[in-house]
């Protein structure tokens, strides 16, 4: 409900406040009122040495969880100086107040002492009246994040001062029991989301391992034997460039157009033109002006020739276009069209993703801030090639793994939507648990 709701639109039992419409028995409290202590970490970076105490910075505070996997450690002498001023305890709420991750928040789940940098503040709530886990969920809402963004407005440096932290305001149920019930319900959903994220990460690792073995011949599928051929890409493909067109020439009308930026941002290794054409950017240009090599056919592979990182130098998309829909490859792309039918179309989705092939792309890439492969160098890359039947069998296994991961990602997206809906209802008092 909007804070701008008129009196006639406010349901019975609710009231209008400066932060929105909430139940009549709820209050709006500042973090200063709700906390017994609000403090940030040391403003003097310690020397990373020794192995005594964890040293926590903003990189360890994620959106809703505490991650110490990348935390450094410092010696006892430095820690004692920092901890005298900033004595973080288990159950305190950690809030990032500096840098790009400002607004990230998590509960401290550690029993041990640790040192904190000034980029993070901790909030210790009055435990007899307020539940830290409830306030964590409030901070993670869109309205909580907007408050933080508004508090930073006007600062030359992206920073949330302690004074601004103390002025953050949130709607609060009248009893600790209701706060805890809301926090528990949302925490259960968080646990489901976290378990799905971990399962997806595990499935991706399994798939990555399977690719390294199956695509290099280290592990053979039952029924297949014999030596693989190692071929230059020059023997397998004819290479050409795309049509130079800028983003401002694109619209929702014209012919489908593949921009190299769309390859970089895609999570998929193929594009099905028939099913996805409504979402593909369009270029309003006569096909007579497009050289035939720039028109993408079924089974073509499109590589990027520019990347801001090494990983991106091997980025590519396989085109599925059985209906022969006009599809133009664009700026900073290299189009690879098969010379002979030696590579299965589904196999093409995976065969460039092995460590060995990626290393070859890195080796032949040129440039400093922006690097990429050229048509002159891409032909020098070699690829192990099994028989077409073995390629199809390998691709089928990897495709099944992709389908399983996709199904889990859809389940994760649904869980996140449910969590958002629950937050909107429970943290505004539209639905009461107690």
TrEMBL record:
Tagged with keyword Metal-binding: no
The UniProt record lists the keyword Metal-binding: no
Transmembrane segments: none
Coiled-coil regions listed in the entry: 398-425
EC number: 3.1.21.3
Enzyme class: hydrolase
GO biological process: DNA restriction-modification system
Protein family membership: Belongs to the type-I restriction system S methylase family.
Protein name as catalogued: Type I restriction-modification system, specificity subunit S
């Amino acid at each position: 409900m909007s804070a701008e709701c008129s009196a006639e639109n406010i349901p019975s039992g609710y009231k209008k406040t400066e932060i929105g419409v909430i139940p009549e028995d709820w209050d709006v409290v500042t973090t200063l009122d709700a906390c017994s202590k609000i403090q940030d970490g040391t403003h003097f970076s310690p020397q990373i040495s020794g192995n005594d105490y964890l040293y926590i910075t903003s990189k360890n505070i994620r959106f809703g969880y505490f991650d110490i996997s990348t935390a450094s450690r410092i010696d006892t002498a430095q820690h004692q100086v920092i901890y005298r001023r900033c004595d973080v305890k288990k159950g305190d709420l950690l809030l990032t107040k500096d840098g790009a991750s400002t607004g990230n928040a998590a509960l401290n789940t550690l029993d041990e002492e640790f040192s904190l940098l000034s980029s993070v503040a901790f909030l210790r709530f009055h435990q007899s009246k307020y539940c830290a886990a409830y306030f964590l969920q409030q901070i993670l809402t869109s309205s909580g994040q907007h408050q933080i963004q508004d508090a930073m407005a006007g600062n030359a440096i992206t920073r949330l001062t302690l004074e601004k932290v103390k002025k953050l305001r949130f709607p609060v149920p009248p009893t600790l029991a209701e706060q805890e019930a809301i926090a528990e319900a949302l925490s259960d959903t968080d646990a489901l989301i976290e378990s799905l994220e971990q399962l997806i990460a595990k499935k991706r690792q399994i798939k990555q391992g399977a690719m390294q073995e199956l695509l290099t011949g280290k592990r053979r599928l039952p029924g297949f034997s014999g030596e693989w051929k190692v071929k230059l890409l020059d023997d397998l493909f004819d290479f050409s460039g795309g049509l130079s067109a800028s983003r401002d020439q694109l619209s929702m009308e014209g012919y489908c157009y593949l921009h190299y930026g769309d390859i970089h941002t895609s999570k998929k290794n193929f594009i099905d033109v028939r099913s996805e054409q409504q979402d593909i950017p369009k270029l309003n240009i006569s096909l007579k002006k497009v050289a035939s090599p720039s028109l993408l056919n079924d089974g073509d592979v499109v590589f990027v020739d520019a990347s801001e990182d090494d990983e991106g130098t091997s980025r590519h998309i396989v085109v599925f276009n059985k209906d022969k829909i006009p599809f133009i490859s664009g700026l900073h792309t290299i189009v690879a069209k098969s010379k002979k039918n030696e590579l299965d179309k589904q196999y093409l989705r995976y065969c460039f993703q092995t460590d060995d092939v990626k290393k070859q792309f890195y080796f032949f890439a040129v440039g400093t801030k922006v690097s990429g492969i050229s048509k002159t160098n891409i032909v020098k890359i070699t690829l192990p090639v099994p028989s077409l039947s073995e390629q199809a069998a390998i691709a089928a296994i990897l495709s099944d793994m992709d389908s399983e991961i996709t199904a889990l990602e859809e389940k994760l997206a649904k869980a996140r939507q449910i969590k958002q809906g629950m937050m909107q209802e429970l943290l505004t008092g539209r639905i009461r648990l107690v």
